[in-house]
Amino acid sequence: MSKSGKDMNNSRRNFLVAAGGALAAGGIAAHTPAAAAPELGTAKPAAPSDDIEPFYGLHQSGIATPAQTQTYFAVFDLQTEKVDDVKALLRRWTDVAARLSTGTTDLSPTPAVLKTDSGEALGLGPSRLTLTFGFGAGLFDKAGKDRYGLKSKKPEALIDLPYFNGDQLIDGHTGGDLSVQACANNPQVAFHAVRQLAREAQGIATIRWAQSGFSAQYGDKAPRNLMGFKDGTINPATPIDYDRFVWAGDEGPAWMRGGSYVVARVIRIALEHWDRMDLDYQEQTIGRHKFSGAPLGGAKEADPLDLSAADKDGNPLIPATAHARIAAAQMNDGMQILRRGYSYNNGATFVAERWPPWHQGIEYDAGSLFVCYQRDPRTGFVKIFDKLSKLDAMNQFITHIGSGVFACPPGIAPGGMIGERLFGA
Amino acid sequence: MSKSGKDMNNSRRNFLVAAGGALAAGGIAAHTPAAAAPELGTAKPAAPSDDIEPFYGLHQSGIATPAQTQTYFAVFDLQTEKVDDVKALLRRWTDVAARLSTGTTDLSPTPAVLKTDSGEALGLGPSRLTLTFGFGAGLFDKAGKDRYGLKSKKPEALIDLPYFNGDQLIDGHTGGDLSVQACANNPQVAFHAVRQLAREAQGIATIRWAQSGFSAQYGDKAPRNLMGFKDGTINPATPIDYDRFVWAGDEGPAWMRGGSYVVARVIRIALEHWDRMDLDYQEQTIGRHKFSGAPLGGAKEADPLDLSAADKDGNPLIPATAHARIAAAQMNDGMQILRRGYSYNNGATFVAERWPPWHQGIEYDAGSLFVCYQRDPRTGFVKIFDKLSKLDAMNQFITHIGSGVFACPPGIAPGGMIGERLFGA
Questions:
Q1: Most exposed residue of A258, A295, B82, B264, measured as fewest CB within 10 angstroms of its CB?
Q2: Are A395 and A389 in contact (CB under 8 A)?
Q3: Model-level pTM?
């Protein structure tokens, strides 16, 4: 698994986000399209937007796949009490996902396709669509009930996330039994894919929450996040080690080997508030220069993060509460997570900010759809974010309002079914 | 005005949406990127996404400009009681809009730019950004008060929209004193532009409501709307007559000559419900074939809409309540409006559908950000939509939840100020 897993990805422009890498560069409330970052400074053109991403393989697509520019993350609740219904649904979802992401629907369209497809993505090309499925805790144990006889197979790593300092989670934006992250280079293609899955789920499962997202990235330039800071700057400083940080190994149930755990967080950013701060304050908050992306005290984007650097009076150049410091790899035992996040923009709604000056009113309903994949959330997101939630100066401007954690089973071969090893199908 | 206005637009790939044109093709709840439609079937490539659209001219940019792929529509409430504050704000907005849409910020960036710019669009190019400003009724008369001495200058055409059958407008998504539609080929560029305007408005005006939107269109293909039907099919059947249908003339106040009136509607679509309907029912609802885009009874997308066509029993091929029939030009005295609409996708929220089977629960919070420009809303949107709201079979699936109407003053020359003729500046 280990070797071939690497082989599968060797030709891809992947990157692993170290805690001291992109997290520090742009904030945990930031998005990082994987496709661009490693190519920074090169002239290699991006792949055509309507390429097909392989659906079958050792791992699910959409994890190590270079990030597309658009996403639609959806979470479903199961309404059925029958495990056979769940299996049949996953069978249908697998078939639909394979058909959509290999472009079958789009590349040889006839009117008959509209009998099973809502049609709005016809003509848009595969657009590098990937669909990545996950299983929530509710699949194994819902309110103490072992609905599907799967309770004994629940991975220990599939934890309920702890309460983090400052969490203001909205009930309707948390939890869920099944997840799917659709990514594509066209927003209509990503949304369309989830709609076909929802259609197949009628009577079995309904959408619990969903969020669309986008990346500003295009061409070969590194993007800035909505806070205006460069993102994806220092990744990876070390060779990518998917087997160590991303893919589940022998430590858990066999059915998860080669899978990964996804944590999704909807993080509203008080952008009006942020935009009122002067540049120096913003840079002290992040720990980096906004224009160049260099660490405070450094000159270039790629300069290493020197946490011991001090001014002539001995004060640290990178403040004790700077996001870059708190998130730095050396502060987190070198733990790394693979981010696959985006920005979101739902317009403007009423909000009461939780920090001074405690403004309340209509503000941008926008921020980060933070998504990360890891081998174990306990040593990944939870470890890194627990410290951030308590110490990070950026917390003045961000509020986590949505949350989910899901076990993403490994990939499959043609004819297989997502989760086949869990269900023994 | 008339001749030169035409000259300005001759070289552009504009089109005018006849009531019987794109409205009928894809539904009023549909988006129509203007750039692609007239080129359907040609191989001419789209302009590079980072082109600059002219900011100065007889008309504001973003109306006759070929549609970009992304939009952010924002509406502001004025908090000041002083007309000088409003004038100063419009002066700043004009300067910021000119700077952003001509790419000044982006094309020669130095760190100093971050003193006045939040920075998240640096490196993304001008992306064909346009900013189109409008004045709401509240600028002229707020709760009976003539705050700024402008009441006598209010155009008669700047009406409050009447209640339409089925309206379920959300209070926080209607009205407003000032509007701006940002359009660009990158979502972060459009949003960034409005953020800079909001920053300039601190203490003077705050955002009341806002909505981002996207078009699926890319390359030279005609897009489908979220209902899966082709959009922008028959436009225009006649030469574009902006002076007749889009630009305000001598019928209103002099300060609006060369301007236009924008109507914006946020239209939620019950997509789950729609996706459960079989193809035949969908086609009877729209009055067109989904796959080909041809009118029912026709064979090709470009076939004319024959409202008298009947089957052997004398039943109309295009049903009496079909959207295409109700919206047809011949049903609306030939009136035309220029659409500049997009789809929106805010995730999923609770909703109670207003038609059988009266489902309520979590559903897609997605649909159409319908935007149209016209010479007079009374003879444009109101005339066409009043009939649609009563008769259109599509109403089973759409709900208007947001609404605004704004007077967009004419364009300006360098050194000018948006609305200069209204304020006598």
A1: B82
A2: yes
A3: 0.88
